[in-house]
TrEMBL record:
Its cofactor is Mg(2+). Coiled coil: none annotated. ATP binds at K45, G52, R53, G54, E98, V101, E106. The lineage of its organism: Bacteria, Pseudomonadati, Thermodesulfobacteriota, Desulfuromonadia, Geobacterales. It catalyses: succinate + ATP + CoA = succinyl-CoA + ADP + phosphate; GTP + succinate + CoA = succinyl-CoA + GDP + phosphate. NCBIfam families: PRK00696.1, sucCoAbeta. Heterotetramer of two alpha and two beta subunits. GO terms for biological process: succinyl-CoA metabolic process; tricarboxylic acid cycle. This is Succinate--CoA ligase [ADP-forming] subunit beta. It comes from the Bacteria. Keywords: ATP-binding, Ligase, Magnesium, Metal-binding, Nucleotide-binding, Tricarboxylic acid cycle.
Length: 385
């Protein structure tokens, strides 16, 4: 789960990490008032669930409250497109107004879960800021990566090693050692899959400040943090993904035109692979899970059909815990409700498969059934021709 920069900064601040003074605004008048509070000169920052805002025109230094208000007007409601948003961009509905800080140096610092080593890794670079992707690509040796042993945790000497690698000395170095340890504490206590400060800055006055902040929470730990759902900004999510979340379905939008409904993540991946093998392009990844009900199948099917990119649907379900006749009923219910005329191919096997096939055959829908995954994939691809 994602949160906004201003929320991430509040959290970091709670762990003793210094951040610039700032206020969140929901209207351009509020932007103006906040700018006045900071003496006119301030930085206006669009809050969206993506980075790369600086280069996309979503972060601007202004000098007067009127200029702040003007830029606020321009930003609110605008779709900001950055390399992380996809081509549609994300709509700006909240703006962070922050005191403008005189920056001497910009670093990169993050802690993230490394799935290869199954542990947190601390990542740091002396060349942080908006060009970090370029640094990672062109001079990867400038990025320091330190895997953290979950048993011993992050040791102070390791934090010092990183602070020194960033070229820090004296009190700023000691401050940085403390900051890194606080960042790790935050990561553990808040169950983060990522905490990123880019840039971490040393100001001209010689203070360390987290100038940008990004936090991702581990969805599997949501039950330990009842406050997290309230922090979510639904306006930043794909409406279909929100709907899928409500019904506990794993749904991920992809770029093709074949909607896929599958049970089990492994089978879903195999389905996408086989579709591709036969020249098809999946429009999504949707896993309805094991013990689904008819209602859940119907909701999943509707979510797929709501995506206007979908030109055909491929259902690939192994009826073990879930009976094939129940799946068929769910599909028929949903397809009839939304008057679906798109071609549908259903490959199912397992309990009550004959009953399921019969229900589909009598449904009046534009549906074919298949006995194997390969056969089903070929059929839907050729039906879309
Ligand atoms: P993004 O990573 O989405 O581009 P950032 O918050 O990192 O957005 O802002 C981009 C750049 O703007 C930063 O690298 C920094 O140089 C500058 N910046 C951001 N906030 C401030 C601030 N409060 N004062 C001065 N400069 C800032
Ligand atoms: Mg940044």
């Amino acid at each position: 789960m994602n949160i906004h920069e201003y929320q991430a900064k509040e959290i970091l601040n709670g762990f003793g990490i210094p951040v610039p003074r700032g206020r969140v605004a929901l209207t351009s008048d509020q932007v103006e008032r906040a700018a006045k509070e900071f003496g006119g000169r301030c930085v206006i920052k669009a809050q969206i669930y993506a980075g790369g805002r600086g280069k996309a025109g979503g972060v601007k230094l202004v000098h007067h409250p009127e200029q702040a208000q003007e830029f606020g007007k321009e930003l609110f409601g605008k779709r900001l497109i950055t390399p992380q948003t996809g081509p549609e961009g994300l709509k700006v509905r909240r703006i962070l107004v922050e005191e403008a800080v005189e920056i001497a140096r910009e670093f990169y610092l993050s802690i993230t879960l490394d799935r290869n080593t199954s542990r947190y890794s601390l990542i740091a670079s002396a060349e942080g800021g908006v060009e970090i992707e370029e640094v990672a690509k062109k001079s990867p040796e400038k990025i320091h990566v330190l895997p953290i042993d979950p048993f011993t945790g992050l040791r102070p000497y390791q934090a010092r090693k990183i602070a020194l690698a960033l070229g820090l000395t004296g009190t700023v170095c000691e401050d940085c050692v403390e900051l890194i340890q606080n960042l790790y504490r935050c990561c553990l206590e808040k169950d983060c899959s990522l905490v990123e400060i880019n840039p971490l800055t040393v100001t001209k006055a010689g203070w360390l400040l987290a100038m940008d902040a990004k936090i991702n929470f581990d969805d599997n730990a949501m039950f330990r943090h009842r406050e997290y759902p309230d922090m979510m900004d639904y306006s930043q999510l794909d409406p279909l993904e929100i709907n899928a979340g409500k019904y506990d379905l794993s749904y991920i939008k992809l770029s093709g035109n074949i909607g896929c409904m599958v049970n089990g993540a492994g089978l879903a991946m195999a389905t996408l692979d086989v579709l591709k093998e036969f020249g098809g392009e999946p429009a999504n990844f949707l896993d309805v899970g094991g013990g689904s009900t008819r209602e859940k199948v119907a909701e999943a099917f509707k979510i797929i059909l709501e995506d206007s990119d979908v030109k055909g649907v491929f259902v690939n379900i192994f009826g073990g815990i879930m009976r094939c006749d129940v799946i068929a009923q769910g599909i028929i219910e949903a397809a009839s409700e939304v008057k679906c005329t798109l071609p549908i191919v259903v490959r199912m096997d397992g309990s009550k498969v004959e009953e399921g096939k019969q229900l589909l055959a009598e449904s009046g829908l534009n549906v074919q059934t298949a006995d194997t995954l390969g056969d089903g994939a070929q059929r839907i691809v050729s039906m879309l021709g």
